[in-house]
Design goal:
The complex is a heterodimer.
Chain A lengths: L2 E6 L9 E8 L2 E9 L6 H4 L8 H6 L6 H16 L5 H32 L4 H7 L1 H22 L8 E2 L2 E2 L5 H6 L1 H19 L13 E4 L10 E4 L4 E2 L4 H4 E4 L8 E4 L9 H8 L5 H10 L11 H21 L16 E9 L2 E9 L5 E7 L1 H16 L8 H13 L5 H4 L5 E5 L1
Parallel strand pairs in A: 2-14
Antiparallel strand pairs in A: 1-2, 1-14, 2-3, 4-5, 6-7, 7-8, 9-10, 11-12, 12-13
Helix pairs in contact in A: 3-4, 4-6, 4-12, 5-6, 6-8, 8-11, 8-12, 11-12
Chain B lengths: L5 E6 L5 H7 L5 H7 L1 E5 L11 E7 L5 H13 E7 L1 H5 L11 H8 L23 E3 L6 H13 L10 H8 L4 H5 L15 H4 L16 H10 L4 H8 L7 H8 L4
Parallel strand pairs in B: 1-2, 1-3, 3-4, 4-5
Helix pairs in contact in B: 11-12
Classes of the chains: A alpha+beta, B alpha/beta.
Chain lengths: 429, 257
């Protein structure tokens, strides 16, 4: 029996640590395991006994790449528990902060982590030797996202300005106005990025995914909405636990999520795009049409183009918010503790993120549950590896290993998040 | 042409935010990449150049049996070793396990605790190997990171003042949030470096850069107590991202549950 073993001990250009085992027997991938050995940090355990007000700062530390996703999900869950709503300019500022994180995180992945796969480089630094202008464009665009994070959140990594009920201090109108010119430049760079990525040579692979994302009647989803899928799921956030389950498998320090009735599903840019295409701005829709991916994209290797379209949208949306910004009368809505359970789900750059907290009358957290996007995508990543690399099994080990890595990187997996991830082994029997 | 110094970036238990700070140096990144050879930096490149390395930046804390061995190998391969961030320098927020039952923690998060390999403690890198310089912060400040890299390239000591956040507030002309507004603030005992971010946003410092040199935490706690902070809150305020830093740990231990 033909047997090949290919091994990648530490997957590069992903956030966090993981490995991959692929077992091939007689020309078939019979098993693919994403092993996540990023050490556990036990956030859900040590959140117990902390005050509800501490959750945004503490949960931000789950991930340095998408801290806003944790902060936003935490504040929405707490506000849901306490029965308060945050509207007007405060709601708009949260969306502006999230636009900053989408831009920063998507551009990091497009230019520094994923594009080198398509252009044949080990990384962006190596790519910069031949394509300095491209890498500089990426850095300038990424910086635009980070500058929004700083403007609204105080700093790029682990923003200090987010609190339950709103913000500690609202940015000045003058400072927001001053940032508009750079964001207009960023929008041009984002449009160039869509055109650039659309020209890459994509493997001809598609899959029939169950896409899951938030859906909001008035806007492309970030902070609020119902959880919907292309197979009929349409639930309120507080019904999440009735429809999704997490299981613990031996090869991973990240829990795997499934839809109880159907199994693996996909969250993230492909899902949001497919389920909310009509909510994109006209500029982003037109760019997606020109890139040939509208209104639905089922080729995971083209996720890089969808990320670029979402980056363009985030710039456009940020500009809309900035141009309409007025300083709010007060930076936050006061929140008094009470015994309750709260649910929050928002759209992290990598996809749906769900938080649930039970809090006591004195404001202390009694129970915390956090489901990050990468745990939800892990079963889909393993299915992709089983199904999509089929045509490449005759490739030499090095090239096959690279294809497997690229297939995982399609998801922009965040292993630090998922461990509550890569080393690649291919066993050819 | 002389060979460029070889830079390696290592990750232990962490959120990746401090490594990201290097990639967030958008204006300096290509210049840095021109001055050093990025020999090992998995978050940025598949390319791996074998050691030894002239400078290793280490992110994250030691929390697994494997990492206890791996940090020894990193040290052996590194001429200079600099820890970046609160996890590597103090153990990070995951060091809250040091004061709890890690088996119980595991059972809260995981259905099959037997699949999990973890230590009962999260410890800083300096508990395991000699560290040449510690850069503070949760996350680190990227200007300080560029300063550390520049200082290393020139062969001098990095300039990262060890005074308190209070001095940074004075330099920025901030009104003291504790004196003027009664806002609880760890600024008087916290290591400078962030540029007094929180007080500049009308909130008290929460100590993410860890303790300054010789902090008077007892006096600060007395003042925060007068302002209405109860014993439990006093314990919690020192028990975050630098909970395992001795000066913060000691003060947390003096207060209630």
């Amino acid at each position: 029996m033909e047997r090949r073993t290919i091994k990648v001990d530490y997957l590069a250009r992903v956030e966090g640590e993981g490995a991959l085992d692929v077992v091939i027997r007689e020309g078939e991938v019979i098993e693919a395991q994403l092993r996540i050995f990023e050490p556990p940090r036990f956030f859900e355990a040590f959140l117990r006994g902390r005050m509800f007000t501490e959750a945004p700062d503490i949960t931000a530390r789950i991930c340095g790449i998408c801290p806003v996703a944790y902060q936003m999900s935490a504040v929405h869950a707490m506000e849901n528990a306490l029965g308060i709503t945050v509207g007007g300019q405060l709601r708009a500022l949260r969306r502006l902060l999230y636009c900053g994180e989408w831009i920063e995180s998507h551009v990091l992945h497009i230019y520094m982590l994923h594009a080198p796969d398509f252009l044949g480089y080990e990384g962006a630094i190596e790519m910069a030797r031949d394509h300095a202008d491209l890498v500089k464009r990426g850095l300038e665009l990424k910086k635009a996202g980070n500058s929004l994070m700083t403007l609204v959140g105080g700093r790029e990594v682990h923003p200090v300005n987010v609190r339950v009920g709103g913000f500690y201090k609202a940015p000045r109108k003058r400072d927001v106005r001053d940032a508009i010119a750079y964001m207009k430049r960023a929008r041009d760079l984002a449009l160039d990025t869509v055109k650039w990525t659309a020209g890459f040579d994509f493997p001809d692979r598609t899959r029939d995914y169950e896409f899951v994302s938030l859906n909001h009647p008035g806007e492309y989803p970030m902070n609020e909405g119902r959880i919907v899928s292309n197979r009929g799921l349409d639930i309120a956030v507080n019904e999440y636990d009735a429809h999704f389950e997490e299981s613990h498998v031996a090869h991973s320090n990240a829990l795997h999520s499934h839809i109880k009735e159907r199994g693996a599903y996909l969250v993230g840019p492909l899902a949001r795009f497919a389920l909310n295409f009509g909510k994109l701005s006209p500029l982003a829709r037109e760019a997606a049409h020109d890139a040939g991916i509208a209104p639905i994209c089922t080729n995971p290797y083209q996720s890089i183009v969808v990320r670029a379209v979402e980056t363009l949208y985030a710039c456009d949306e940020a500009l809309r918010i900035m141009e309409n910004y007025e300083e709010p009368d007060r930076p936050f809505v006061p929140a008094e503790p009470k015994a309750a359970t709260g649910y929050g789900a928002t759209e992290a750059p990598r996809g749906l993120i769900y938080h649930r907290y039970a809090i006591a009358a004195n404001g202390k957290i009694e129970h915390a549950q956090i489901v990050p996007p990468t745990s939800q995508n892990q079963p889909s990543i393993e299915e992709d590896l089983r199904l999509l690399i089929k045509g490449w099994l005759d490739l030499p080990d090095d090239e096959l290993r690279h294809r497997c890595e690229q297939t995982v990187r399609n998801y922009d997996p965040c292993i630090s998040c998922a461990t509550h991830f890569l080393d690649l082994r291919i066993d050819r029997g | 042409m002389t060979a460029r110094p070889k830079l390696a970036v290592w990750k232990f238990s962490s959120c990746d935010g401090c490594q990201l700070s290097l990639l967030d140096c958008e204006d300096e990144l290509l210049a840095v990449a021109g001055s050093v050879e990025i020999a090992y930096f998995l978050e940025a490149t598949r390319n791996e150049v074998a050691g030894p390395y002239d400078l290793s930046l280490v992110e994250g804390s030691v929390t697994t049996p494997h990492d206890v061995e791996r940090i020894q190998e990193v040290r052996r391969q590194s001429k200079a070793l600099v820890t970046i961030g609160a996890c590597a320098t103090a153990g990070g927020i995951q060091a809250l396990r040091n004061f709890a039952d890690v088996k119980e923690f595991t059972s809260v998060v995981y259905a099959h605790p037997e699949f999990i390999s973890t230590l009962a403690t999260s410890t800083p890198i300096a508990d395991h190997v000699k560290v040449d310089f510690e850069l503070r912060g949760c996350p680190i400040d990227k200007k300080q990171l560029v300063e550390v890299l520049s200082a290393f390239l020139i062969g001098r000591k990095p300039v990262t003042p060890a005074h308190s956040v209070c001095v940074e507030c004075k330099l920025k002309g901030n009104v003291c949030v504790m004196v003027a507004h009664g806002t609880l603030c760890l600024g008087p005992v916290t290591h400078a470096g962030c540029g007094a971010l929180c007080p500049s946003h009308d909130r008290g410092c929460y100590g993410c850069f860890g303790p300054m040199e010789t902090p008077n935490a007892v006096a600060l706690s007395r003042q925060m107590s007068k302002l209405g902070m109860d014993e439990g809150a006093l314990k919690r305020v020192y028990s975050t991202f630098n909970v395992n830093a001795p000066e913060f740990r000691k003060e947390a231990d003096r207060h209630g549950t």
